[in-house]
Amino acid sequence: MESSAVGGTIVTPERRRWKFPGTALTWLAVTPFAAWAVARVAGLERGSLPTQIMTATPYAAAGSLVPLLIASLGRRRAATVVALLATTALGFSVLPRALGSAEATTGRPMRVMTINMLFGRADVATIMKLVREFQPDVLSTQELTPGAVADLDAAGLKELMPHRVLQDEWSAGGSGLYSKHPLEPLWDVMPPVGHQMPAALISLPGGQSIEFIDAHPFPPLGPQVTSWNEALADFPSASPDRIRIIAGDFNASLDHAALRGLLARGYKDAADTVGAGLIPTWPANKRVPPIITIDHVLVDERVGVKEVSVRDVPRTDHRAVLAELTVP
Fold it and tell me: Endonuclease/exonuclease/phosphatase domain location, by residue (predicted)?
C-alpha cells in the first residue's frame, strides 16, 4: 500500500497463491503405492484378488511417480520420503527386466517355443509358419485338444517334430510336448495338480539329455489360487545332475512371490535375462493390447540365453514365446 501524489491511497491486492493438496490428500495418494511396494518386495500377496492385482506391478511402478510429484511439489517432506522409497522399490523390482543382454556362452544350441492354444483354437497355419522359420528343438503346447493335434499333424508337424508326449484333452487341461529329437516320457515329475503338465527327457545331440516340463498351473482365480501355489511349489528344483527347462503358461508373472520362489531354486527367466521380461504375452488378440507377462521359459542357471522374442498367433489369447538357448 502506498500514497498517491494527487491524494488518496493506492491499494495493491495480494496475489493469491495456489495451494497444493493438503497433508491428508497427499497421504491418500502416497499410501496405496507404498503398500504395494511393501507387498511386492516382501511377497505378501495372499488370496485370489491380491494375487491377480500383483501382475499390474509394472504399471504401479510407473504410476508411483504421480504421488511422488504431488508430495514433492506440496513440500510434504515425510510423504515425499515415503513416496520416493516406494517408487525406488517398485522401480528396482521392474526395471531390471528391460536391462538384460544376450549371454555369450558356449554350448549346444537349443531352441524352445511355447504357445497356449486356447482350447485348441489357435491358428495352425501361423504356428506352423513359426515352427518352419524358428525351427525349435522343442514345442511346448498348452490347452491342446485332440482336434488341434490332428490339425497340426495334417499341417506338417508330424514330419518336422515326430517325437512327442501328448496329454491332449477336449478342454483347457490338455498339453503336449513336440520334439525334433527322440524323447523319453517322464510320468512322475509333476503331481496331479493343475492342468496336464507332461515332462520328458529329450536326447539333444552332443551331450547329456535335457529334462523338459510343459508348465500350465491353474490360474489363481477364486479357490484355484491354492492349487496355483501348490503347482508352482511342486516344480522340481534345479539339479546338478541334469539340465532342466520349464516352459509354458505359468499364469504367473515375475511379480508373484510364488514364481520368484521357483526361480530361487536354481532357475532364471529367459526373457528377463536378455531384457525382454516386460514384453506382455496376455491377453492377445483382444480390443485391448496384451498387458501382463505370464508365459515364460525358465532355464537352469547353467543354460545360456541368446535371444527371446514374442510373436502373435491369431485366435488365441496368448502370444507365442520363442527362446534361443545354449545348453552345456
Answer: 113-318
Sheet holding 108-116, edge to edge: 163-167, 175-179, 138-142, 108-116, 320-327, 304-311
Q: In sequence order, which residues have a C-beta less than 8 Å from that of residue 32 and are 6 or more positions away?
A: none
In contact, 130 and 161? CB cutoff 8 Å = no
Reading the block at residue 12, the C-alpha cell is 495493491
Domain residues for the domain of 213 are 108-327
The upper half-sphere exposure of residue 129, i.e. CA atoms within 13 Å in the direction of its Cβ, equals 10
Cell 504367473 locates to 252
Write the pLDDT tens digit of every residue in 59-113: 999 999 999 999 999 889 999 999 999 999 999 999 999 998 888 778 999 999 9
Match 535375462 to its residue by C-alpha cell. 273
Residues 175 and 301 in one domain: yes
Same domain as 132, residue 92: no
Q: Which value, to the nearest 10 degrees, does the dihedral of the CA atoms of residues 234, 182, 161, 237 take?
A: 20
Is there a domain that residue 87 lies in? yes
Q: Are residues 249 and 141 in the same domain?
A: yes
* Residues 133-160 pLDDT 10s: 999 999 999 999 999 999 999 999 999 9
Whole-model pTM? 0.91
Q: What's the structural domain count of the chain?
A: 2
Tell the residue number behind the cell numbers 485366435, with chain if given. Answer: 315
